[in-house]
Amino acid sequence: MVRIGVVGYGTIGKRVVDAISKQDDMNIVGIVKTKPDYEALIALSKGIDVYTLPERIKLFEEKEVEVKGTIDDLIQKCDVIVDATPGGIGVRNKNQYYLKHDIKAIFQGGEKVNVADVSFVAQANYEEAVNKRFIRVVSCNTTGISRILATFIENGLEIEKARVFIVRRGADPKEYGKGPINDIVLNPATIPSHHALDVKTIIPNIDIVTMAVAVPETLMHLHMMYITFSESISKNEILDILYRTPRIIVVESEMGFNSISQVIEWARDIGRIRYDIPENIVFKESITVDGKELYFFMAIHQESIVIPENIDAIRASLNMLSKWESIRKTDYSLGLIQEGKMYGE
Ligand code: NAD
Q1: What is the best residue among 85, 95, 141, 309 to mutate for testing ligand 1's pocket, by most ligand atoms within 8 Å of CB?
Q2: Cα–Cα distance between 191 and 209 in angstroms, integer?
Q3: Is the Cβ atom of 85 under 6 angstroms away from ligand 1?
Q4: From CA 229, how far away is CA 39, in angstroms rounded?
Q5: What is the residue-level pLDDT of the chain in tens, covering all 345 positions?
Q6: Any ligand 1 atom below 6 A from CB of 304
Q7: CA-CA distance, 163 to 210, in Å (whole number)?
Q8: Ligand 1 centroid to residue 103 C-alpha, Å
Q9: 170 in ligand 1 pocket by Cβ < 6 Å?
Q10: For residues 122 and 312, is the Cβ–Cβ distance under 8 A?
Q11: 78 catalytic per annotation
Q12: Residue 156: how many CB atoms within 10 A of its CB?
């Protein structure tokens, strides 16, 4: 069993911990929390050991929240650390803690590209991450875009150019202090948004431009995809590829899917914990083909889309399984949609 520590127990960290606990080839040794708050108590109630930064031990003791030791103590007991701290803290942790130990680490998309040896999306470049010491799982939008573009490439379609127009959720549900509350914010005001550059860290030679705005909702991102291939394609060919690719779900307007809130309601109805949707959601009726051009709407659940990638990144870093063995194992353990199981039949 591979031993994993998770540093940062927020939106991404708590989901990674839950996902690790569902694997039979890795174990969660503990987490690093900076605050002795309700999230620390929930972790303890789940039997997860809590560690903290050296200067925070006293704070936990004062609040009588059980703490097992420092981040260094946790690292010494682990084979891999998943760092899920806010952007910029991961690189600090790397310099302060990870480099001095014999440890591998997985970082998240809020870190700069050079924090790691490789940026990672399982379906796109699993093999490049095999045996790497430091791996960066890219951000939610970049994961969704890279996953679907890699799917077309893997199925033999040559992409001439990809243009992606992104409507971003303004904040995650728990981010009570963030907006916008009555606006559409250019996010950023320049074109391309960082997503295009980030996709190139995964699929280097792709011609891609992304533009993004942020809107007042917390549910999912919506991507308007416009892809040009080098040769004409058919709608059936696209549908066939999407239907048989893991981590991509095609939903139908006819079945009641016309908005992201309906996708979220579906996830709640089928009993997904925290209504998580780690799959790309493609809206079937929007798939439009005109010669070499393809258009469609795609929704991405920002809080959970990168969770399977974190599990696969752990396996890649230790060369535990091949790409598709890992992807299938992860998907099965997390209960992701297998073909034909969409409505719980
Ligand atoms: P978050 O704020 O929800 O969680 C981060 C947690 O880390 C917080 O609980 C914070 O208190 C804690 N923390 C801060 N400094 C720490 C330290 N030194 N040691 C240990 N813990 C510390 O953030 P998040 O949304 O989970 O984002 C984490 C990373 O994942 C970022 O790089 C982000 O860009 C990336 N990401 C976020 C999303 C998303 O939509 N939330 C999606 C994909 C990727």
Answers
A1: 85
A2: 8
A3: yes
A4: 47
A5: 999 999 999 999 999 999 999 999 999 999 999 999 999 999 999 999 999 999 999 999 999 999 999 999 999 999 999 999 999 999 999 999 999 999 999 999 999 999 999 999 999 999 999 999 999 999 999 999 999 999 999 999 999 999 999 999 999 999 999 999 999 999 999 999 999 999 999 999 999 999 999 999 999 999 999 999 999 999 999 999 999 999 999 999 999 999 999 999 999 999 999 999 999 999 999 999 999 999 999 999 999 999 999 999 999 999 999 999 999 999 999 999 876 567 654
A6: no
A7: 6
A8: 20
A9: no
A10: yes
A11: no
A12: 8
The reply to whether omega before 54 is within 30° of 0 (cis) is: no
Residue 136 C-alpha from the chain's centroid: 11
Position 313: which residue type?
Answer: A
State the chain's maximal CA–CA distance in angstroms. 67
3-state secondary structure the chain: CEEEEEECCCHHHHHHHHHHCCCCCEEEEEEECCCCCHHHHHHHHCCCCEEECHHHHHHHHHCCCCCCEEHHHHHHCCCEEEECCCCCHHHHHHHHHHCCCCCEEEECCCCCHHHCCEEECHHHHHHHHCCCCEEEECCHHHHHHHHHHHHHHHCCCCEEEEEEEEEEECCCCCCCCCCCCCCCEECCCCCCCHHHHHHHCCCCCCCEEEEEEEECCCCCEEEEEEEEECCCCCHHHHHHHHHCCCCEEEECHHHCCCCHHHHHHHHHHCCCHHHCCCCEEEEHHHCEEECCEEEEEEEECCCCCCHHHHHHHHHHHCCCCCHHHHHHHHHHHHCCCCCCCCCCC
Ligand 1 atom with the shortest distance to the CA of 108: 32
Which residue's CA lies nearest to atom 32 of ligand 1? 110
pTM over 0.90: yes
